[in-house]
Amino acid sequence: MLQIKQQLERVTYIDTVARALCLLKLLAISPLRVQEAAEKLGIHKSSASRLLSTMRDHNFVRLNSNGKYELGYAVFEMAHALSEGMDVRKIGRPFLEQLNKTSNETVHLAVLDGIEIVYLDKIDTSRPIRMYSRIGKRAHVYCTGVGKALLAYLPDEKIDQILAQIKMKSFTARTIVDREHMMNEIREIRVNGIAWDRGEHEDDIYCMAAPVFDFTNKVIASISISATITYTPEEELAKYAGLLSQTAEAFSRAMGYVGDWPPPVRL
Length: 267
Description:
Blueprint: H1 2-10, H2 16-29, H3 34-41, H4 45-57, E1 61-63, E2 69-71, H5 73-85, H6 88-103, E3 106-113, E4 116-123, E5 138-140, H7 145-152, H8 156-164, H9 179-192, E6 195-198, E7 205-213, E8 219-228, H10 234-237, H11 241-254
Antiparallel strand pairs: 1-2, 3-4, 3-8, 4-5, 6-7, 7-8
């Protein structure tokens, strides 16, 4: 909402196209009556009415049963066409490359598939380190940084469904196997925007991860920086938390995300 206001304020002479685009963003937040749309756009009610009528003729908006305008089917058709052409691995690759180059640590891109994560991409460190992860391999959601970053930004009901299907077992002495402990960690991730795996899947491997969102403002992937504490102590790895968060945000923006950062949680 703040971004839309800033866009309106930056343009001195807003043309019809600019108004229509801002109006679509406003309607993506909530349906509006003509007067409400006029007030938010800073234009006369008659101008807002003409604009909405034109957009309605082209199916970009529709009038609901409450007398408010909402997004029309043309928007959904375009969104579907966009999503079909968006390859998260292809779009994410430059962000991973920069993250790897800056940190000289192993970086990952992962997605949630059912109750597991799948590694879509990986760029190794130049150091002689071997990790469990590889492209196409699956891992548990509850004991990996990328998994916890994905889990934390799902609705609570979905988290409950996933955890109910998992028998949480220990891989190391640090693996979290208690549901209450896991939920506490999820709440912490939602505050900080960063998920940690402190040797919970592999003894010597520490990982911090951040979520990636798309144009629907839903979490679709996560990226991580992983290191072995033999070369990189936890406090050194933690220095890249800001870079990781910035990279996740830039990646999300490239996927069409327009919300605040860190993103709000959908409970």
